[in-house]
Specification:
binds zinc ion
Length: 277
Amino acid sequence: MTKKKKIKKDNFEFKIVDKFDDDDFFDDCPVCQAMKFAQEKERQPTRSKLKDVLLKAKEKGAIVGGSLLEEKESQMPKWMECTWRRVPCGKDDCPICGRIKRDRQRHIEKGEDPDDLKSVSEDVGRNFKEALEMIKKDAESRGFDITNIENIKEPPEPKKFPLYGEIEKWNKSVMAFGDMTQVSGEFWIHTEAAADLFWYANTLMAKTYRQLCNRWHINNGDDYGEFDRQYTSYILKECLEILKKSLKGLVNSYPQKQELNSLYSNFLKLERKIIKI
Ligand SMILES: [Zn+2]
């Protein structure tokens, strides 16, 4: 069995990314929060308990310290990377990969096509409801001050952010170039670097919108924004590094240098703006 996702033809098609995009779903805030809450509750009771004990001891004047106390509450577990990386771990016991496998298996057993849009939207709806329930139950016990989850303000549409518009334009040029290259039968389109370029060009667009929303939430006084900002910032940095490596490699190794160089220089201009969000 192969761990890598197949690079399908439709990877090269332009997709509109908004807050309900399926690509972004498994990393959607409520879901990742819920997964995080569930995971930490299940797997790390001893750890959080130990932390409580240390904090109580500190209150009473004991000299305690160490990484456990300095650990940030918003630190995400490693498996969260499987929600956005092109090549996820694929392990059965991974909360993300295992879940996707089980969802797919259920559709196959029912005689449905797991890639069919209806199946996907069913999973999205089911997981989203579950996630909201879990958040309501667990946010408080995890110490997050997300008091009125129903009252979280709805952020603006992607088009309302000028930077999103710029990235969308860049993304369109990447996808159009991909289509053109595929038609002309260039070999490099089948390389890992090319797969990274097309995959993370989409991720970059989705995550930039998400970070713009986080910034918007923070400016509007929602705790929710700060909660998500840190991890999204990490994802963006990773995406930018991967894209940089991919474009650099492609520019140096393959023909169509002019087009690739233009994509690369526009990317570098965007990078400077993205890291400032
Ligand atoms: Zn995984």
